[in-house]
Specification:
This protein is α/β, with parallel strands linked by helices. The chain has two domains: 56 residues, no CATH class; 115 residues, Zincin-like, CATH 3.30.2010.10. The chain has a four-stranded mixed β-sheet, covered by helices on one side. The protein has a three-stranded mixed β-sheet with strand order 1-3-2, with helices on one face. A three-stranded mixed β-sheet has the order 8-10-9, covered by helices on one side. Strand 4 and strand 5 form a beta hairpin.
Length: 223
């Protein structure tokens, strides 16, 4: 088997899972006491699936160029494109005249500042859109928040807390709306049964197109 992978052992894990990172790193999460040969056997059994995912990553990200955080670069926000305009003025990051205005900072510091700003936009956006869809679906989440998930777009906890990946704020509205509806429907069905997907479809008939969009383009939602 010619797949390189890193093993991360966690005390509370009871099963093995594989995560394919956007840069094609393969991480295997396993219980603390599971023997290495069993982990290796599991990865070997999943080799075809892993290869398929790695090839998919390579094909989709082949045209992706990492951000340089320089003036004129394009940034997405809720489906709209803005050109980055760096200014020497002491200002906060904001949108003006179809431009994303940001203070002059070293690239790494500017990246961190933009992530903070994006998370703030995401929190506001998801609060409002969740209110809208929660009313339509007739559910009441306990709380709404954003997190920096690496391998999921959202989560719904049994106590009613819902979290969304802040990177979704860079996707078109109908895409983030799908994830919102998906997680809100988990307040009714805590599974992915036929009843769950039927509930999703009642609110968002084109949810399959949104799922496909995320599968194809989701890896590009990054800074």
């Amino acid at each position: 088997m010619d797949i390189d992978y890193a093993i991360t052992r966690r005390p509370r894990r009871k099963t093995v899972s594989i995560i394919i990172r956007s840069d094609n790193r393969v991480d295997v999460l396993a219980p603390s006491l599971m023997p290495a040969y069993l982990i290796h056997r599991f990865v070997k059994e999943k080799q075809a699936w892993i290869q398929k995912k790695l090839q998919f990553n390579t094909d989709i990200r082949s045209g992706y160029q990492p951000k340089t955080f320089t003036t004129g670069e394009s940034f997405e926000l809720i489906g709209r494109t803005y050109q980055l305009q760096i200014t020497e003025l002491n200002t906060t990051i904001h949108i003006a005249d179809n431009q994303l205005i940001a203070p002059d900072q070293p690239p790494e510091k500017l990246k961190k500042s933009l992530i903070t700003w994006y998370r703030q936009q995401a929190d506001q956006h998801f609060q409002l859109r969740c209110q809208h869809f929660a009313t339509a679906i007739a559910v009441t989440p306990a709380s709404i928040g954003v997190k920096a998930y690496k391998s999921r777009w959202g989560s719904c906890h049994h106590d009613g807390r819902i979290y969304f990946n802040w990177r979704l704020i860079m996707a078109p509205t109908w895409i983030s709306d799908y994830v919102i509806v998906h997680e809100l429907c988990h307040l009714i069905h805590h599974n992915h049964s036929k009843l769950f997907w039927h509930t999703v479809e009642q609110t968002m008939p084109d949810y399959r197109e949104a799922k496909l969009w995320l599968k194809t383009n989701g890896l590009l939602l990054d800074l």
